[in-house]
């Protein structure tokens, strides 16, 4: 009997086998050094093979984040309770070094939930596929697909960001730090471990009416006179701009899920037709034309021992190229976190890192509170909008949202993290179909990193 195998099935089998290999590798510890070729194999936290002179290496790892959330009020179209269970992220990651000065990273997201859902649900996508040249130290040159720099929370890995979802305004400016299926070039520089700067140019997947892709520029600068775990003083500034000239129907919606991803997921189970993801301003109508879309950001952070405090202010402006008015919004968040078991949050230049439990039996316990704010200029009243992702009523006035997030993280070990977060949102001048201007939600997450 002749058996037929689909390409997708073979690919999924290879991926599953590779994933199993990486996870099982964590059961072993220590290093193995050959007698001749000077190769070191490390099996703690994935699988890593490298030459002792660090000229060549590769590391296989990844992350799995499984979420479940329940929410009501403004988060649903009619105010009833909805829920969602989904893989927030399911990454398989390969990175390494070749010929000393060349580095590469390939990260594939099987969940399709962290990027744009341009294809079929759960089809997966390359979250990153880039290579870098480090021979001009302290300058690094990077090319390929990657998320451009914009903001402290976005710079921090999703594995170690404190809250389950980044601040509410981050979605209002989601284009600033998303590759959107495009490619880019980036220059980074680390200056004596107290300053970091980066700039990048990207070609996005949207095209104008002549077929030219949307071009985007990003820049970020960080100054950190204190830059070590448990002793951080951090300041940063960000800028991003994309040109939307002659792009019919460019998506300039100022919208946010307000901390509840489950109301509208890109992949996996969501609240479906019940979920409400309101638009505070803007549109993606095909008959609207725009000019430059610009964002600015300021960031600051302080940490001493197990306590950390951070915040960011962001602003977005979209210039009109038609009869409609310009768009504008600003927002901020302030977050305080404390590790009850005494561990300090890790810090690498320009971003926070993991918390490593000191006690292997009880792990590390962290509590946090974050306050988010969104304010958008809006002069377009919407009496009723029914789309696959939202139903809302909006007045011709400034729209606002305030979000409270209270959560706990349990770092069981360096690979397992269990999290829970309660979120309460309050809106002004915008409601769901039932007239609700507030909502409550709760999300739990199980994370495994290898």
From TrEMBL:
InterPro entries: Porin_dom_sf, Porin_O/P. It comes from the Bacteria. Residues 1-29 form the signal peptide. Gene3D superfamilies: Porin (2.40.160.10). Keywords: Signal. SUPFAM superfamilies: Porins. This is Porin. It comes from Pseudomonas cavernicola.
């Amino acid at each position: 009997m002749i058996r037929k195998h689909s390409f997708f099935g073979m690919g999924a089998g290879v991926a599953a086998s590779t994933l199993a290999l990486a996870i099982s590798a964590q059961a072993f510890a220590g290093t193995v050094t050959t007698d001749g070729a000077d190769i070191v194999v490390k099996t703690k936290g994935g699988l890593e093979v490298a030459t002792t002179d660090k000229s060549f290496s590769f590391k296989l790892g990844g992350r799995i984040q499984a979420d479940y959330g329940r929410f009501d009020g403004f988060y649903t179209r009619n105010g009833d309770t909805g829920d969602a269970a989904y893989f927030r992220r399911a990454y398989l990651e390969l990175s390494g070094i070749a010929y000393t000065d060349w580095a590469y990273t390939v990260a594939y997201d099987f969940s399709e939930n962290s990027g744009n859902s341009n294809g079929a649900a759960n089809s997966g996508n390359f979250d990153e596929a880039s290579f870098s040249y480090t021979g001009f130290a302290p300058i690094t040159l990077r090319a390929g697909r990657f998320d451009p720099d914009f903001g402290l929370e976005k710079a921090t890995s999703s594995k170690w960001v404190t809250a389950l979802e980044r601040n509410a305004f981050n979605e209002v400016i989601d284009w600033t730090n998303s590759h959107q299926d495009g490619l880019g070039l980036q220059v980074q520089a680390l200056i004596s471990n107290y300053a970091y700067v980066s700039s990048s140019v990207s070609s996005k997947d949207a095209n104008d009416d002549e077929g030219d892709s949307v071009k985007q520029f990003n820049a970020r600068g960080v100054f950190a006179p204190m830059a070590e775990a448990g002793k951080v003083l951090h300041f940063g500034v960000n800028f991003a701009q994309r040109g939307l000239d002659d792009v019919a129907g460019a998506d300039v919606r100022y919208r946010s899920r307000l901390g509840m991803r489950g109301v509208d997921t890109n992949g996996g189970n969501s609240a479906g037709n019940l979920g409400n993801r309101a638009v505070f301003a803007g549109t993606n109508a095909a008959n609207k034309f725009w000019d430059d879309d610009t964002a600015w950001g300021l960031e600051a952070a302080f940490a001493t021992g197990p306590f950390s405090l951070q915040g960011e202010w962001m602003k977005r402006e979209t210039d009109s190229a038609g009869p409609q008015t310009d768009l504008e919004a600003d927002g901020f968040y302030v977050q305080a976190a404390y590790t009850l078991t005494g561990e300090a949050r890790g810090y690498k230049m320009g971003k926070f890192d993991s918390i490593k439990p000191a006690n292997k039996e009880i792990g590390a316990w962290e509590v946090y509170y974050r306050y988010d704010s969104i304010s958008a200029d809006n002069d377009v009243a919407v009496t009723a909008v029914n789309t696959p992702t939202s139903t809302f009523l909006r007045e011709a006035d400034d729209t606002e949202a305030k979000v409270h997030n209270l959560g706990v993280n349990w770092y069981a070990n360096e690979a397992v993290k269990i999290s829970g977060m309660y979120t309460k949102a309050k809106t002004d001048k915008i409601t769901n179909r039932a007239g609700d201007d507030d909502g409550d939600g709760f999300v739990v997450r199980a994370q495994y990193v290898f």
